[in-house]
From TrEMBL:
It comes from the Eukaryota. It catalyses: L-threonine + hydrogencarbonate + ATP = L-threonylcarbamoyladenylate + diphosphate + H2O. This is Threonylcarbamoyl-AMP synthase. Interacts with RSC1A1. It comes from Citrus clementina (Clementine). One of its GO terms (cellular component) is mitochondrion. Residues 24-212 form the YrdC-like domain.
Amino acid sequence: MAFSLENGQVSVENKAGLVRPATEAHAEEAIQALKTGKVIAVPTDTLYGFACDACSLEAVNRIYEIKGRKHTSPLAICVGDVSDINRFAVTDHLPHGLLDSLLPGPVTVVLSRGESSNLEKSLNPGLESIGVRVPDSNFVRVITRGLESALALTSANLTGLPSSVCVKDFENLWEHCACVYDGGVLPSGRAGSTVVDLTRLGKFKILRPGSAKEETTAILEKHSLVEEPAAG
């Protein structure tokens, strides 16, 4: 491999060697990097993201360091299938079929973690909720299934700077990743996922419009959820 094992960093001349196609042929390599606590960059159905094992405190801390992000800003998680969500968050208050209607897709659902969550307590400490994604991205779902855990997932950019829709957008950060998986130019227009709070019975609140607000709202209302007004 083209990266050194020390902190997962590489020299400038080896940066190009970090980039791989985001195909199933490279999935096993990505899974092994995740299992050994490394951070990788992946394409989702909205933006490029940094990903690591959500149950590795060291890897999660590394994502915060790469992004220059405060630990008070929570990370979302990604799972391979909708049926995995209840391992990490409370879903039994939701209408039957709702999550399957929303996901996979460009939506982050915010749910209560609950006492039985498999998530490490060190992930987003002090927060009783967690944002969960099932991206409509075959590569991400394959590696998440292979990890047999959840991915911690956040946009591949320095905090406060524009999000990335191609690997060149965050080339200055490649050196901090074990591998960068290239899925081409993504079509989201840097909008990111739509974030919706589903922690309350029968209610929903759009926390970030993102790239699928109208479709998401229509699905939620079809399942008889009532929108709560935004704070402020």
